[in-house]
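Exercise 7.
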Amino acid sequence: MEESAVFGHVIDELETRDYQPLVHVPGAHEDTYADVLDRCETHQITIGGRYPDVLGFTHADRVFAVEVKGSSGLLRGIGQALTYQQGAHVSYLAAAADTVGQHTDLLRSKGVGVIGATDDGVTRWSGPPTSESHEQVVDIEGQLSVRLRRSDIAGDIASLSLAQPLNYLAPVVAVDLHGPLAGDELVDVIEAEYGFGAGTQARRSALSLGLLEGTGRFTLTDQGELAATVLRGSGISTLEELDAVKSDVGRSTVVAEHQPLAILLRNCYERHPEFRLLLDALRKEGPRIHFPDLVRRLVHEYPNVFLNTFCTRAGRTRARELIEAGQVSRIYEEEAVWKDIIRTNVLFNFVQQLKHIGVLAAETRSHSGKISEYDSDAKPWVLRDDR
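Solution. The predicted structure, written as tokens, is:
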């Protein structure tokens, strides 16, 4: 039985059980799995460096993962299903019923569920009787929430590329003042009334924070309307007034000069599950954070946050390969490795954002030079004391 046929039957069964699945299909196999791709959204979420064929929430809001095989490759599939236990409450191996049936006792003894399929559909579904440790499950839950639960979040937190987060409020002020605007109109208004030449980046970031919605013309989401109300309550109804506040902040921080606006911005960030997980990692590692130690915690506890937020595109591929090869420690122990993987922007713009919204203390020094020149000992991240 072909793997693609089993895959289709598994999706049928998941829909019947009211599960919420995302699928991973390599680009080279898109034609073979066209039917599956027509029915399901895709994901790029890894567990132990591998992409589960199917990943999502059960009807009881538990994370499930499924490795799908046909009538061959079962031993490799068992290994993959065992790996997925690190990041899923329940892990399954799905394959042709006559083939997977020969391994049922072994799979269930290891805590892996069994899904068997024939030409007529899924004929066997045995949930795992036990569960292994789920050290990464909170990371996977956060990633799935981004895709399945928060439709107003349009992008990942790594797309917030500007150092001053007040700029992300410019599109909110513009749309609140002028009404719905097309993309180019919004950029032109920001440049003309705010004197800011990176309007496209500000618009994309406002989308990522769930403040704007739309494609042709942009309007405010409910969160955007709330932000506009807070801004008006702070005496900011025009882009000129927002620019004056930005000038007031100067070389200081938003949280030091205009705390209500910092609280507003921080709330926008914290609505993003990926950012909340990063904040959790910072709090566990703080109050004074040596950057390689933060990388170590992220790689072990929140690997997808690390891959999506801290890595370049090429770095993401290299880091995933090291994780899959069992060489995780190289990522944070070898300076040459993590400096090759990390986005330089994380050490400058992102640090500045975290200072402005009150996550990092003002004494934290960002790094604006080449990443090869970054001295993590001389520039630790310091959590802001909210007391």
